Amino acid sequence: MAYRLFEGKKHAALYLKYRVSPSDHLIQQVLGFLEKQKGRPFELAVDVGCGSGQGTLLLAKHFASVVGTDVSPAQLELALQHAQQANITYRECVAEELPFADSSVDLVTAMTAFHWFDRPRFLQEAHRVLKPRGCLALLSYTMDIELSYRDCCAHTLNQVSQEFYAALKPYRNPHLGPSSIDLYRAAYESIPYPDKEWSVCG
């Protein structure tokens, strides 16, 4: 079964404020792969486990229509408040039961969310809704990321980050296992598509 977290209104507000969003560079990598597979135009993208919609917004300028889905009404309420683009809509649903027809979606994304899903069921569902040559993008970050910020000492910044994550590690949900990168690597290796890419962005 999928894990239901981040659902309360207070938690959703904190999620909107502090959640790490994918970089534009990473989104461009995903779009480049999609264009290579099926070409343009890009019609429909579905951002699964969209939370408060940060990733959904990043896709909007590239697709005719973008739908963010999440299990949490509180997250979707915040997402709706920040969706200025007319081509964005949101749907409340679980990741393993997407309200889309077979072979109807160009791109399915899960941005820092896939690890909470019933992973085999979600992968089957994503495969069902994707068009031929459509793409699935599973994006996340790990606790050993290297940080940098202008006019800031990278060594000190990364030392603070390592101490922070070391303090949190005892509270890590057992569902995630010891390493996020191992979890995503296992999912990548389990996907039988002939064309796939593994990318680590700095």
Overview of this structure, please?
31% of the residues are buried. The protein starts with 8 loop residues before the first helix and ends in a 12-residue tail after the last helix. Helix 1 crosses helix 4. The mean pLDDT is 89. The protein has 202 residues and is of the alpha/beta class. It has seven helices and five strands. A five-stranded parallel sheet has the order 3-2-1-4-5. The radius of gyration is 17 Å and the shape is globular. It folds into two domains: 146 residues, Rossmann fold, CATH 3.40.50.150; 35 residues. One of its GO terms (molecular function) is S-adenosylmethionine-dependent methyltransferase activity. This is Putative methyltransferase DDB G0268948 isoform 3. InterPro entries: Diverse_substrate_MTase, Methyltransf_11, SAM-dependent_MTases_sf. Keywords: Methyltransferase, Transferase. Pfam families: Methyltransf_11.
